[in-house]
Every structure is written in C-alpha cells, then in structure tokens.
Amino acid sequence: MSNFAPPVSRPPFLYQGELFVDVGKLNQHPCASQSDLTTLLRPDSSTPTSADKVGHYYEAQLIHYDLAPSKNKAVAKVRLLEALNKGVLKVPASVLEDEKQMKKEYEVENKKAKTVFMARQK
Question: What is the pTM of this model?
Fold first, then answer.
C-alpha cells in the first residue's frame, strides 16, 4: 500500500504502514523480531554476523518491548539480552492494541488522501 496520508502519531509511537517508535532527531524504528534481536545480541559462529546497529535502534526496541528505556547503547543491549535470556521479551498487549487502533485510523486517512490525490491526477 502506498502512503498518501501522514503518520498517525501517539508519541513515542507512529504508524504509517507499520508501527514505529520515534526516539527523536528523526530517528524512527520498527519493532525488531525476537529472532532478529537474537541474531544481533547472541551471534554464533554458524551464521554470518550482522553489522551492529546504532544506539537509537536499541533504544527504540526497549520502547517497543516496554522495557526500561536507555539512551546508552550498551545498557539498552544488555536490557534486551537479559529479556531474551529470561524468555520475557514480548511486545505487550497494550502496544499491540494501540497499533491496531492506529492502523485503522491510518487506513481511513490514507484512503481519503489517496482519493484526493487520484482526483487531482485527472
């Protein structure tokens, strides 16, 4: 789906086709999967190592997973790894519900904006 409407915003979250966390200074990140975070935080010799991410990426992941926030990259990585190791890394139901509502709002606004755009193209 093309994006015709501006994002729906409920700071620190915004939705425009997918849910992002805005950590400031135009740094916005979608939620990383547990497997992606495992690959980043528990590299093993059988898989090629991914390049490390910037600090605000890890800060955004803490927010997505409702863990104590930190702007310190090392602290953020440790918090994510501890949650992974304890088996408690999970996007909370409240965030999933907010995403669902924001998606509905966005789809309505995007459809309206697309209609306006298409009418102007004629």
Answer: 0.90
